[in-house]
Amino acid sequence: MDTRAFANRAWLFVVPVMIVVLFSSLTPMMTVVNYSFQDTMGQNNFFWNGVGWFQNLLDPTTAVGQRFQGSLLRNLLFSAVVLAIEVPLGIAVSLCIPKSGWRVGAALVLIALPLLIPYNVVGVIWQLFSRTDIGLLGVGLTAAGVPFNVTQDAASAWFVIIVMDVWHWTSMLALLCYAGLKAIPDAYYQAARIDGANRWSVFRNIELPKLRKVLVIGMLLRFMGSFMIYTEPFTVTGGGPGEATSFLSIDLVKMALGQVDLGNAAAYSLVYNLITLTVCWVFFTYTTHADQKDAA
Amino acid sequence: MDTIADHLAWMAWTWQTIVFFACMAAALAGLTTLAVLRPETPHRGILGFATTRGDRFFVSLLASAFIFLGFIRFGGENFLYPAAAALLLAAVMFRFA
């Protein structure tokens, strides 16, 4: 039985945050909901449009529906590829980080460096790096006889964007896994040594199970990051060539700010938001539920 | 003098969306009151994990959104059907989850 004193007054401390959230998130979101059911010709004149924008968006035979479906599938593919590379690589890197001595600090600082660079700067770095006239990667690949052109070839653009994301974010997974590894008590390793376990079974039966929680959190963060990605691919490719790297956010910004197609963009962003909300909820429920099972 | 309505004109309110958000606010206020007056312990049901009233409400809302979107996707016209399905689902959630 929990006998700690319980004060509801603590909720008062949340009030300032609630006010900020009201203005920064809730009011704009309610406006988007309002836009998604109306059409406008500007001058703040709105006409009721019912579920027309949603019908448009979800019907893949319409132009908007096609764009949405294309961007959604591209984005899911991008997230899947990025996770499939970053998670195993992050684990591998974390296993290689030294456990003691001055090398720990050096390795952690080096690994954390990409995380300190602003998103648009990462984009610019890779945009320059992949140029075929002055970029080391572009020039090198072209000299080696590999057909490579980010602005005209979809495969090149995807290659650069995926490598860029791996470069930028594997560090985060490596650091998370390293923290998880450090938290494993020495007794587990000693027991494994007594049992004569080899390196693989130590990894498979001790380290990997103990990393499960940090891996779930890392995968959630990376899924969300890659599913809502905007700045880096936009800086490198602008969503091109053609539509090849137009992910959901890039396409949505084009629609909302480029074409000022408010109704369609509002419906688009609400469905987009619903997907991220659902994934987030599933991950959150899974992690809290797993905690409860561990505690029981 | 400007009325509140003038200040909120940029938000392009409609009575339908006002009713929707008012219902949301009322539901949250109701759940909060209920939580204060009748504290509960989470219990495990058909979802396979312990849920509170708030969890069941959230799941009902989330699933309703997908029911309506699915209905629109497959070209449904009469929204009484998904509304009935969503209410039924909410009832099942609150009774069995």
Automatic annotation (TrEMBL), chain A:
<dbReference type="GO" id="GO:0055085">
    <property type="term" value="P:transmembrane transport"/>
</dbReference>
<dbReference type="Pfam" id="PF00528">
    <property type="entry name" value="BPD_transp_1"/>
</dbReference>
<protein>
    <submittedName>
        <fullName>Sugar ABC transporter permease</fullName>
    </submittedName>
</protein>
<dbReference type="InterPro" id="IPR000515">
    <property type="entry name" value="MetI-like"/>
</dbReference>
<keyword id="KW-0812">Transmembrane</keyword>
<dbReference type="GO" id="GO:0005886">
    <property type="term" value="C:plasma membrane"/>
</dbReference>
<feature type="transmembrane region" description="Helical">
    <location>
        <begin position="76"/>
        <end position="97"/>
    </location>
</feature>
<dbReference type="InterPro" id="IPR035906">
    <property type="entry name" value="MetI-like_sf"/>
</dbReference>
<comment type="similarity">
    <text>Belongs to the binding-protein-dependent transport system permease family.</text>
</comment>
<feature type="transmembrane region" description="Helical">
    <location>
        <begin position="12"/>
        <end position="37"/>
    </location>
</feature>
<feature type="transmembrane region" description="Helical">
    <location>
        <begin position="214"/>
        <end position="231"/>
    </location>
</feature>
<feature type="transmembrane region" description="Helical">
    <location>
        <begin position="157"/>
        <end position="181"/>
    </location>
</feature>
<keyword id="KW-0472">Membrane</keyword>
<dbReference type="InterPro" id="IPR052730">
    <property type="entry name" value="Sugar_ABC_transporter"/>
</dbReference>
<feature type="transmembrane region" description="Helical">
    <location>
        <begin position="104"/>
        <end position="129"/>
    </location>
</feature>
<feature type="transmembrane region" description="Helical">
    <location>
        <begin position="265"/>
        <end position="284"/>
    </location>
</feature>
<keyword id="KW-0813">Transport</keyword>
<keyword id="KW-1133">Transmembrane helix</keyword>
<feature type="domain" description="ABC transmembrane type-1">
    <location>
        <begin position="72"/>
        <end position="283"/>
    </location>
</feature>
